[in-house]
Design brief:
Distance between the termini: 35 Å
CATH class of the largest domain: Alpha Beta
Oligomer: single chain
Shape: globular
CATH architecture of the largest domain: 3-Layer(aba) Sandwich
Bound molecules: tryptophanyl-5'AMP
Number of domains: 2
Radius of gyration: 21 Å
CATH superfamily of the largest domain: HUPs
Helix content: 40-55%
């Protein structure tokens, strides 16, 4: 029996943070044993907003290093850069023909990003059609599952709609309807406690943060907004830091930490110190592997080259079938 297939990706827009790690990347690492995995660095998504073209190549390499350092194993998973497989953008065009304009207009991420930039009409057409390229990333490998944080749920729904419409128009059952796979912590809030952790807002702790700045940021993080003094009881189920504990701290400590919070027997500072220990225990090996990988650019080139070759072989075959189904001639030989 063929294994179920995963595809996921991240935008190389800067350093990965704990939201990316706990919401998605840690889950990818765990899923490698069970699924046939494709993990890409979506450089073509990163250019849908203003960006620095001189910085992009290094950001792509840094992202690959972060994937590998976190534990993505290139002997078990295919790791590659989106733009190394041009079939993604070709399929995106075909899928755009079965995607509705109104559907794209309802995407909250588009609304959020244009709001941040201050103008919807000035946004690039690429930002508007971003979810179609994401659908193509997934469907070009006929992936059945997509491990992401919960902010991608609406995009996944669009991918399923596109698959459904394509199938009913051209061939029943051709594309699987990809399901989301969520980690136990699908939404990590930022240090400000107001919005989800995000690079663009700067309310984050980086995955590769060194211990000193890590503590500096963690010690200032918001916890339960109702707990303004140490004597007031806290509500661990609403606290972002307790959520991180559930992903990182040994399970037998969790009821103890929760009780200390509820009974106000310890303050948030105490809880943060224990989270610091858990974070450093988890991330120290990741930081060490990242340093090793940075010192070996040849190895990185090779991993990404091999990954692109594997991915392309699959994507090539899907596009051959798609063109034939759609009556498109495609490249002739
Ligand atoms: P991106 O680059 O914004 O984020 C990468 C992954 O991290 C998750 N994430 C979070 N999870 C929990 N808490 C947070 N605060 C948090 N912030 C980010 C995201 O949900 C995501 O899983 N559109 C995608 C990239 C993409 C993609 C794809 C994903 C392009 N093509 C195909 C899956 C499949 C994005 O912008 O992710």
């Amino acid at each position: 029996m063929t294994r179920k297939r995963i595809l996921s990706g991240m935008q190389p827009t800067g350093e990965l943070h704990l939201g990316n790690y706990l919401g998605a990347l840690k889950n990818w690492v765990n899923l490698q044993a069970e699924y046939d995995c494709f993990f890409c660095i979506v450089d073509q998504h990163a250019i849908t907003v203003p960006y620095d073209q001189k910085a992009l190549p290094k950001l792509v390499d840094d992202m690959a290093i972060s994937y590998l350092a976190a534990g993505i194993d290139p002997s078990r998973a295919t790791v590659f850069v989106q733009s190394a497989v041009p079939e993604h953008t070709e399929l995106a065009w075909y899928l755009a023909t079965v995607t509705q304009y109104g559907e794209l207009g309802r995407m909250t991420q588009f609304k959020d990003k244009t709001e941040q930039a201050g103008s919807e009409s000035g946004a690039s057409a690429a930002l508007f059609t971003y979810p179609v390229l994401m659908a193509a990333d997934i469907l070009v490998y006929k992936a059945t599952h997509v491990p992401v944080g919960d902010d991608q749920t609406q995009h996944l729904e669009l991918a399923r709609n596109a698959a459904q419409r394509f199938n009913s128009r051209f061939k029943k059952g051709f594309f699987p309807e990809p399901a989301g796979l969520y980690s136990p912590t699908p939404r990590i809030m930022g240090l400000d406690g107001l919005k989800k952790m995000s690079k663009s807002i700067g309310n984050h702790i980086a995955m590769l943060e060194e211990p000193k700045p890590l503590w500096k940021k963690l010690s200032g993080a918001y916890t339960d907004p109702q707990r303004t003094t140490q004597d007031e009881p806290g509500r661990p189920e609403l606290c972002n830091l307790y959520r991180m504990h559930t992903a990182l701290t040994p399970a037998e400590r969790l009821p103890v930490i929760a009780e200390q919070c509820r009974s106000a027997s310890f303050g948030c500072g105490h809880c943060k110190r224990e989270l610091e220990t858990s974070l450093n225990a988890e991330l120290e090996p990741v930081r060490a592997r990242a340093k090793e990988l940075r010192a070996n650019p040849e190895r990185l080139r090779q991993i990404l080259g091999d990954g692109a070759a594997t991915a392309r072989a699959v994507a090539f075959e899907t596009l051959r079938e798609v063109r034939e189904l759609m009556g498109i001639r495609g490249p002739t030989r």
